[in-house]
Amino acid sequence: MKRLFGAVAEAAAPPAKEFPFTLTDAEWRARLTPEQYAVLRQHGTERPGTCALNYEKRAGTFSCAGCGQKLFVADRKFESGTGWPSFNDPLPGAVETTVDRSHFMVRTEVHCANCGGHLGHVFEDGPPPTGLRYCMNGVAMNFEPKAA
Predict the structure, then answer these.
(1) In sequence order, what DSSP letters do the residues of 51-109 get, joined into one string?
(2) Which fold has domain 25-145?
(3) Residue range 95-132, pLDDT digits in tens
């Protein structure tokens, strides 16, 4: 089991809203690996540099490991030097954001618009044209390479 970086936020409840894709806690635990569950459902963070998706360079699509919602395309991925997969723009309607006040700071949390799973955070220090850096937990996503 991969170790997770940092503690799970005490206020780690999913955003207070109904999502199109919902499961019971038992169903989430059966569907996800322990690492995926800790990140997607408990707002954990994987250790930087531990996920192969950080190094993924092929054309394709990144999707939510919880529900399969397509989130990002590979040509919007860039190397941020943080140790987590980073993107400058999600697919339209794929993600939503909320204010995260955990860990004695204020950040913008990114979650899947379909299931509410915690994906990571977005920061305003990314490259043009958006200036945004969607810093995602690789364990919260799957990758499907583009067919040749």
Answers:
(1) -GGGG--SSEEEEETTT--EEEEGGGEE--SSSS-EES-PPTTSEEEEEE--TTS-EEE
(2) 2.170.150
(3) 999 988 877 878 899 999 999 999 999 999 999 999 99
CB 36 within 8 A of CB 43: no
**Residues that are catalytic:** 135
| Sheet architecture: strand order including 95-100 | 77-78, 86-87, 133-136, 118-123, 107-112, 95-100
**14-32 pLDDT per residue, tens:** 446 889 999 999 999 999 9
Residue 59: φ, ψ to 5°: -70, 140
Per domain, the residue ranges of the chain are 25-145
